[in-house]
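Let's practice the habit of predicting before peeking. Look at the sequence and jot down your guess about where helices and strands might fall. Then scroll down.
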Amino acid sequence: MNSPKNTLPPRYFDDVYGANEDPWQFTTSPYERDKYAVTVAALPRPIYESAFEIGCSIGVLTHLLATRCRRLLSVDVSEVALRQARQRLAGSPQVRLENRVIPANFPDEQFDLIIMSEVGYYWSLDDLKKTRRLMLDHLEPGGQLLLVHWTPVVPDYPLTGDQVHEAFLEITGDKEPLRHLHGQREEKYRLDLFEKA
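Done guessing? Here is the structure:
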C-alpha cells in the first residue's frame, strides 16, 4: 500500500469543505445516521460531566452528544467545517467549539469521556501514539474513551481504522492503562469502548 505516512494538514480539510459543505454526507447518508445512533447508544452512562470530541467536523454527531453531556468541548482542524458546526450548535450553550490541531494543541483539561470518530486514520502513527498518550493523561480514572472508524482502506490516509483501534487495544489488559468494555464490527466501520483503569 503506497500511502503517505505524514499526518494530513489542516489545509487538506479546508480544501475538502471548501469544495463541498458536506463532503461525507453526514447530514443525509443513512449509513452515517445509523452509525451515529449506534455510537450514542454505546455510551453506558446517561450523562457525562465533561466530554471531549476530537474532530467534530460540521457538528452532526456533536449535536447528538450534546444531549448527554453537561459540558462538551468539540474541536476540529478546519475552520471552514467549524462555521457550520457553530450554526448547528447555536442553541447548545454547554458546547464549546474550537479550532485546534491535535496532538499539538491538546486542551489542558480533564474529561470523563473522550470521543474520536473518523479521525485517527488522518494521523501518522507517531501522532496517533502522541494523541493516545494525551488522551490517557487527560481522561479521569474511570473515564471512558469511545472510538469509531471506517475500516476500508483509503489510499490518501496514513492509517486504516483497524490500525487506529489496534493501537488502543494493545494497551488494554490487567497491567495496562485501559480496559476494553465493548467492541463491535459492522460492514464498513468498527466501534470500541474503553475505560481508564
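How did you do? Strands lie at 48-54, 69-76, 95-99, 111-117, 139-150, 178-185, 189-196.
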